[in-house]
Predict the structure.
Amino acid sequence: MKHVKILVMALAATMMIAACGKKQEEVKPADNIYQFTVLDGPGDSVSLSAYQGQVLLVVNTATQCGYTPQYEDLERIYEAYKEQGFTILDFPCNQFGGQAPGSYDDIHDFCTGTYHITFPQFAKIDVNGPNASPLYVWLKEKKPGDIPWNFTKFLIDREGNVVSRFSHSSSMNAMENAIKSQL
């Protein structure tokens, strides 16, 4: 048994030495939102390049939050401007007080049944911390600061650049005006 431990330790040390000699691949930072892939509700990969050329509003949401009624305004804004090339990308997040419990189907059924949303809704993600979605890491690099709560919104222009950030308590009128200025 002692020989096995020594052999395992020697093998691990050899692998570490070999790894140190290899050049680590450089990770190129994303230039725009279109370089990200996210998961849809069923768990399939979706390239955000599918939204290239559109004005986007990326929002982390929750179904049991005091701000959940914002879904009503979000759907109204989406309906008003979708024909002009505007889309909302909804990312449920359970990091704030456990206010987005349940499966994707539970969340989606609630949002479509209660608020009649028709904009794309993706798989539940983390927006802060070590498991934060790479998309949200990038968004927070472009408009710095952790996400403080549900319904933080990022406005993306037609070239895929972050142009504005809105908190959960920002005026919907101000946000709508910013969206119109990008259309």
The chain has a mean pLDDT of 88. The helical segments are 2-21, 70-81, 104-114, 134-142, 172-182.
